[in-house]
Amino acid sequence: MKIHLLKKVGGNFGDELNRWLWPELLGDVSRGASNDVLFVGIGTMLDRNLPPARTTIVFGTGVGYAAVPADITPHSARWRIYGVRGPLSARALNIERRLAMTDPAILLATLPEVSGLERRGTIFVPHWKSVRYGNWEAICNKLGITFVHPCEDSRTVVRRIATADKVIAESMHAAIVADAFRVPWVPVALSREVSPFKWVDWASSLNLTYSPACLPASNRVEYLRNSLLRWSVFSNAPDYPSPARVAQGTQMHFDDLDLQMSNFAEVGRRSSQRWRWNASMGLEIILKRLASIGLGTSLQMTAAATGHLDKLKASAGVLSSDQSHTRALQDTLGRLERLKGDLSLSRRATGSGRLGPVPSAA
Fold it and tell me: Strand order in 55-59's β-sheet?
């Protein structure tokens, strides 16, 4: 039996975890000859763009970028839902609250290879698109903060997070992994491209609130990007402040779940308008080109961004309570054992490498 692991493009370490984490956690039940089972785990993958499959197993993935699959239901012969990332994903899918778990990257802390490591220093992990525009690596070097590229080898990124004293995170999975290893994290946003819906979905699963600090643009290209993104399909937070407010280092608060659900509905509507996607891609190409040739340098902007990041370096950071973390980890481990048991039972029932009907997770 073989479970096809859906992988996302771009090299973002959070998505790339799927390449190796699930084979390690599922062991023999994930190996075999059949390719008709789709396994969706870490990431924001529950949308209408999922490829068709005879059986789709959902274990901790979430919604956030586009309309959800039209036929998804816990009682469908196609879908086997063991849990989704958080309560917002459950609401968006119109499924029971008990199917809201947490992000399965919490399981990374159970791996022997990353246990008992020495911790030292502060690291900064931006969103995988933010590295294309800003001057943050140079700023981090000046402040004695280790800059971690989110598209590095995923095992390397996980290890760097696990060995840090503090993680400044624009990347959501940098915060998720930090919390899993009980490393304090500081949420930041460099642009409107960061999705509050996704963050709140996960944070709510651990009884946390999402209150990122908006860092000002580090150069003119980054400022232009922030200004233009409000017309983009990625502008999925109408309540984001304007670029002028961002430049003041505003701290935002996203604690209204109903508002996030309303925002998600708007994202679904915009994602169906192809002109928005085309405009977004064209904008990225132009801005990446400007950044690559070194245009947009501003000593004043760099100084302001440096000052704000320096303040965050000294902040205490965020961490879920030990009680919430233990509850979420034990719940996720229980769902994992149920999945492994169901897959083993299915394989024995068919007497071959082909995955037979998977018992309903609901």
Answer: 4-5, 37-40, 55-59, 79-83
